[in-house]
Amino acid sequence: MDSTPSSISASSGGAVRRGGKLAAAAVIAFFTLLLVPVAQMFVGIGKFAPIDENRRLADPPAWQGSVPQAVVDAQKWFEDHYGFRELLIRLKTQVDYSLFGVSTRIHIGREGFLFYRAYLDVDRPAIDRFVAENFDRIVQGAEGLDRQLKRSGRRLVLLIAPTKDVIYPEMVPDTASRAPQPSQVQRIRARFAQVPGLILIDPAGMLIDLKRIRPVYHRTDSHWNSAAAFEVAKVLVDRIASEEGRTTSPWDFSLRVVNYPWVGGEARFMPLFYPPGEDALFAWPTWPREFTSVKGDSNPLEESFVAPAAPNMLPCAVVVHDSFWGGIHEPAIPVFEALHLAKWYGFGSLDDVLKAKPECKYVIYQFVEGNKLAWETLAGFKER
Q: Is the predicted pLDDT of residue 143 greater than 70, yes or no?
């Protein structure tokens, strides 16, 4: 005969049922956690802003040919596309930045200055080594290009933009690798200045002086601000006007500076839920903005710009450029008869660019000193 009180039996039965429900809930939660990321990956539940990774994400595996290779391709695809990947990456990056002040992608400098890790730690030393190993070839390439253009009545203009760490070395954190002083790039810029007849625009010294008055580079972006680019554009125009024998320069625009909140590319690259911003400085347009633009086929010319005819305009120019040309470009349009742009990595060879507009007197060879292709092109140039 069972002597257990009925109240205890009922209590035990209830506990068992509650335990069973909890176990079932735990199993359901476990499988939900497994399935929701899969659903997000394949169905797209919950859209998240893509992360700027400066590379192409892996394509789905082809499942053709070698099985081991297909397995490797599948693993790469999964690593780039697993569920909630963007959310989890941002979460980890935000914790690292907010709690510890570090980032795996960006060097966090002083006073809010940011610097790309890949450039300071990898690309900059590689470029310095390349310039050191090919110093004479680069100089000879610039001299040969200048001579070749002069034989057909044209002129070369070298415009080398310094990187942010060159202008603000005091803002680079101790975590970054240190560049030798002077760097090979600094040495070759000085060597270019000694080449007879070569038109060199080297704004580094001017920008170092100007930063005592106002910011010249963005804190959260790798580029100079458009107010600094305005000053570089003026130097460029004044120098070409001088080469033309002009007593006055067509540049008669005044600089009007404005500030507004902005988040630059380095801050967006981290990536964070709340990237740091800045009260950024920009040049407000004080120049004529009427022009005609014609898209090219990107090989070799991407676009041409023609402003309405005006007195004292400079001859047309072909511009080989990178992103640092952006702030120079717009105020320069009204003072040239035409500007024809060829973007680095957007054309087959420099020879193609030189042949594209032979009637243009000036070839502006613009690049930031971290542009390895520009150095390689000079080192490999063969005079014709």
A: yes
